[in-house]
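the two lines:
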Amino acid sequence: MTIAPHDEMQKILEQNARRLFAENSSRSELEEVDRDDGIPRALYLRMAELDWFRLLIPSERGGAGARMVDMLSLLGEVGRSRIPGPILDSAVGAVWMITRARGSNADEWLVRIGAAEWLTSLVLVDEDERWGPDILPVTALRSSSGYSLNGTLGYIESADKSDRWLVAAQMEGRPAKASLFLVDPAAQGVTVSRQSGLGVLRPFVVRLSEVLLAQSDVLGELGAAWPLVEEGVAVCALARSAVGLGAAQRTMEIAVDYARNRQQFGRPIGDYQSMQYQCTAMLSDVQALRSITFRAAEAFDNNDPNRSQLASVAKAWSNDACLRVARRAHRVMGAVGFAAEHELHHFTEMAEAGRANWGTSRFHRNRLSDAIDPIQPALRAERVLDQTDDVMSSGSR
Amino acid sequence: MTPALALGIGELNRRQLADVPEQAWRAEIRDFIADLPADFECVHEDVGYGFGAWSPDLLRRIGEKQWIGLCWPVDAGGTHRPVQELYVLLQELAYARVPAEALLYSLAVSSSLLRFGSPELQRELLPVISRGDATFCEGLTEPDAGSDLLALRTRARLEGEKWVIDGQKIWTSNGWAADYALIIARTEPNALKHQGLSAFIIDLRLPGVSTRPILDMAGQPSFSEIFFDGVQIPSHYLVGQRGDGFNVVLELLEWDRLWARSVKAPFLQRMWEDLVTYSRQTTRCGASLWDIDGLRDQLVDLGVEIEVCDSLFEHALRRMVHEGASAIEEVSMAKVFADRLGERFFHVAQELRGAAGQLSSADVESDLESVHHRIVRGALTAHGVMIAGGTPEVQRAAVATRYFGLARS
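prediction for all of em together
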């Protein structure tokens, strides 16, 4: 066994992150962006100075060469301190996909993303739909000078403030061929519109209308990006579980601390077994969240062939577990936990939003059942086709 | 065992547990399993832990492989392999449904003997245990001492060179079938509740010992009463210091909660694969059960939870091995998690059986008979497994006080 669940590297990252996020300058910037609905750029730059945006970039390509388990330890702190913005998209998803694609510009992109100079949002798949390389929401058409992108996709984190978008597109006229493009949001034909995000999420709908890109904007091999996209989604789902873990851990601490101190009937409510039950049930979920999240992270570090499925296991489970922790915390806290002035509700909102961010439990269950039974998606597709045939034939009559 | 388990549960993840050349170790275990005869002499069926039936015959075969002393020190007659190998061994046996329940108790009791037993007692018993020539049970609970274990009243008094034991144990798993019991008894009647207790090994074939099997609700004699009426045992059969029985029991229970539930995941994983097959083969309302979204979702959820359960035990084991930390809180909560998963698992399994759920066994197509039988047993034994080793309520109360420092109610 090479990796202990909590080795020195992870402890140091956690401690440093907790310290940085608690500093006065960080706190005041976070309060400011909360009011202005922005993202904490200055804080990101300080995080970048600590190498946190290049943690997952291999050292031979200018990165910190850290493991997924290290990154997830850090993301736990991001959840605990409710840091907004495209950290997950940029430092995990984008870096993961770009480092695994063979592309002429990849190294330059990594340098900029690793320095947090290019905060990168991900525009990948519609998680409410069946998915595959042939049904991506964005399409790419080959034009005289390069490519023209068209399509619309929602729930894109901080698309208004990010410097680049990594966009998955299916090649028009070539079903099952997906490519990844790096898009400058300042390009002609790009529009974004705000969605009202829950918790710290800042989601946007992005529209690409004949956005012209050059050959040099393609990541890796044209038409061969689908496995990368699929794994990118899995990595982001796992990262999201780690953010949820940090938030759930903090939720539990708030509630247990309250149970120790809050007096009713002349004694701390934590003396009562019913309250102790709630506390230990939270602990059970937090422990299980940690063990499954880190198991999946190790699978990525070890290039385990089941890594993508394990990420879905982690996310499918963490969605519900984070909510259970939130509910139990509210039971312990009573009315004050429901008050806007108390911090608990921020974590509750994170749990509610987190369940749908990077895949609901149903989405991930479907990924898993498709993996268990590969005939299944084909059958489903057949059913859909049958219905389509009916509609078309009746229409033509 | 299938080479790659459907949800990635199992070897691919557990591989990371071991520094050892694990594939070779697994291959050796699988060869052993493959060479076993199809039918064993078993005393009773699996009681819901997943260790399989109680079979002294199988225990001797494992003893021949020198696997009972797998992790013991060499001078104790063992091979001093890393504890991760034991974990792998138990998981492989459970997945293969090998009737290895007796092995669990041999491991638990030998662990206590290695830690607390006198050299004389070790010399006497360890070789016998190592060969698989003796079976064990754990005599803890008494009629008036269940969750309040320390209220126990069985007494031991020293008379010359002998300890004389009087009292009664109840709900002792396999008490009537085992050769020896590790028990806890009161040696200092006037001491405080958790002091004045001592642990002993008792040969259950001695005069003055009588046992009575108790049928469990699933129809198996899985536990029993044991009566001690002036039983005389040699003085060196005391385990640990006189008055230190409480600590012996604490360790024994930690072992019990970790190892007895460590096979929940492979046990349920195997059963889950059966359910997936069953749900694909079984048609209801014109569709296979697997194609009914609600049922498939529940099945996949179970697969997810089995993976989570397995990761919890791996996490606890790592803490114990790597950080040398007592993982007693992790283990308590993992025990509760595993037992609750067992309940949910068989709840869904019964749902899958549909109307056949009202039958105590198959009464259907013969090739699915064993699936039905296993589901019924699992659904019934899940109630007992939840209680065994301490109820969830007792576990939670202990974690609330020890981990969170909340007041004992």
